[in-house]
Specification:
The chain has a single domain (about 5-125), classed as 3-Layer(aba) Sandwich (Rossmann fold), CATH 3.40.50.2300. It is α/β, with parallel strands linked by helices. The protein is built from seven helices and five strands, in the order αβαβαβαβαβαα. Strands 2-1-3-4-5 form a five-stranded parallel sheet, sandwiched between helices. About 45% of the residues lie in helices and about 20% in strands.
Length: about 140
């Protein structure tokens, strides 16, 4: 399976208040076949969720209005979003930060800046992730 097909038909929501990081992630994911939705904070993230349920959400932790931890807790409290792959992509990489992301409901924690190998592994994980409802025919 080539890299382009990995994210084909996948929808990814990227939430980050850093415009450059948001733009770079969007371009990278779209170049690999994903449909990308973007938001600058958790509130905007929930607005995007009213349009479409993504396969994965890549979320920064430190954002104004509603940060990533609060977003994750609210997201996971809604049965509809229990199975969405939720990955923290953040500059916070202390042990306590990682523990906080797991407790809030994240499925993974990646520290910025992301290396090419880490980005490749992330795209592989998203591309191979199958939500339970997809497996039911």
């Amino acid at each position: 399976m080539n890299r382009l097909s990995l994210l084909h038909w996948r929808t990814i929501l990227v939430i980050d208040d850093d415009v450059d990081a948001l733009s770079a992630m969007r371009l990278l994911l779209e170049a690999h076949g994903a449909h990308v939705m973007v938001a600058a904070n958790g509130f905007e993230g929930f607005e995007q969720l009213t349009q479409r349920t993504p396969d994965a959400i890549l979320c920064d932790l430190a954002m104004p209005s509603m940060g990533g931890l609060e977003f994750a807790r609210r997201l996971r409290s809604q049965p509809r979003y229990q199975r969405v792959l939720l990955i923290a992509v953040t500059g916070r990489s202390h042990r306590a930060d990682i523990t906080d992301t797991w407790r809030a409901g994240f499925d993974g924690h990646l520290a910025k800046p992301l290396s090419p190998a880490t980005l490749e592994a992330l795209m592989q994980r998203i591309g191979q992730y199958v939500r339970p409802e997809e497996g039911q025919a």
